[in-house]
Amino acid sequence: MARRSGVDVDRWTNIHGLGRLRHEFLDQVWRNLAWLTLVLVPLSLFRIKFTGWLPLYGVHLVLAVAVLLIALNRKRLSVRYKAPLLVAVFWGVGISGVINFGLASAGLWWLLMGAVVTGAVYNLRHGVIMGIAVLVVLLLFMLAFSSGQLSTRADLNVYNTHPASWVNMVIGTALCIAVIVRSIILYHQSLVRETEHRFQQWVEDMPAAMVVLDSDARVSFANAPARELLGLSDKPGVRYLGNFYRAGSDTLYPLEDLPMLRALKGEQGKVDDVEVLVAGRRIALQIWGKPCLDWRGKASFAIATFEDITERRRAETMKSEFVATVSHELRTPLTSIHGSLGLLRSGALGELNDKMQSVVTIAGNNTDRLLLLINDILDIQKITAGHMSFNIAPVAVMPLVRRQMDELATYASQFGVSYRLSLAVAETEKVMADEHRLMQALGNLMSNGAKFSPAGGLVTLEVSILDEDKVCITVSDTGTGIPEHFKPHIFEPFSQADTSSKRGRGGTGLGLAITKDLIEHQQGEISFTSDPQLGTRFSICLPRVR
């Protein structure tokens, strides 16, 4: 047998489930119709005794026998045959009733019920088409009766006045309607159950661990991966997710920061620094939370998905340790080479001719770049691992800015750029920061400003007080600005606006990522604005010492 594709299997499953429901519905109608026939045949015989035999009763007798035979063999028939035969029975009873008794006959109900059954078995469109067909037939009968081309076969005065006729019509019609209505109700209930079961099976078999929390933050549903991952019982009842911890520590994760509880407040969220203890084993998790709103816009329950990232985090740790180890091992010989080249360039080991001096200079510059790259990698690794220490203390801002301008003046001159301080605060103004890390962050911004400004350009520094609580240092260049598409990625590691192999500026793409982490670890903020005509402005704001 040919293997079905994923889409085909899903379609086949849906058709199979609906086909089974249609079978059950038609079997139930045929079974109930058989019992209805056993009730109506004696009633018809009772009416015949008082009102006389009509061809109508011959048709009904044939239909009654057919109903009983089909009902007894219904398990052998497919929907393809059971449904049309059922509709044919309704039309046979309805048409014969209208011919014999006119448009006042109960046959109208049988015709309409044929349309209802068609809609239930197939779809609404088929039901509407059948209903239109019923109306057209009735309209034709009405024209035939009114024009005299057709007349009723029965004496309506006899039938309308005899109690047996009324008993037969009322009981038969009522039972028929009851059978159809009950069957349709059960069919739709089965359809709902089938849909719920199919949906639950989809959720149960999905690879992602999913949990649904009610408004009281209790687990109302958890699929199989969630029960396995979080150690939840599959027995019904009140279930709680357990305790969550900060990654790498025994500190409980704040409940208000968990995405599934934030979702109950109407917020979406995601975290990946969570661990849970299951059967004595710490599992690293990434958690997403999404609220489900009711018609009032209030979160009535929350959906949370959990992903086990233990192996991924272990791989990231191994990668970071590998990078750190290799960087440390590289820095030691590079430092020695850098020092040796410095001695050669300075002439301490003798004068070099112009050709040798040029080669040594090139080697020294490239060694400087390698050391800068290694230091940046070590810094970003330390920050990511949380191993970088900060000594937060009051730091005078203006002396630090001037010292940094003096130290980077030579570097800026390589690009034909100079620094200028256009706005300053009092010399006694201080911020809470780590002086060394603040110098490093400011140095990254100032060196970037010089590197990306055109020759003869100016990098402007401004120091100002913001809202009396913060001191801001702004570095403005006169470069071409940051492309619009790159702005969301400006602080990502190893990201550069010009990623081509021929880009004219050097760099590792780590400077701004390191700067952002350094400032945020000092309870500060960093922001930027950029315009192709005006250049780029980076601002770092730190808590002011008052």
From TrEMBL:
Residues in PAS domain copies: 195-233
Keyword terms: Kinase, Membrane, Phosphoprotein, Transferase, Transmembrane, Transmembrane helix, Two-component regulatory system
Quick check: keyword Transmembrane helix in the entry? yes
Task: List where the protein spans the membrane.
Answer: 29-48, 54-73, 85-112, 124-145, 166-187
Q: Which catalysed reactions does the entry list for this protein?
A: ATP + protein L-histidine = ADP + protein N-phospho-L-histidine
Q: Name one GO molecular function term.
A: kinase activity
Task: List the Pfam families.
Answer: HATPase_c, HisKA, MASE11, PAS_4
Task: List residues of the Histidine kinase domain.
Answer: 325-546
What EC number(s) is this enzyme filed under? 2.7.13.3
Please report the name of this protein according to its UniProt entry: histidine kinase
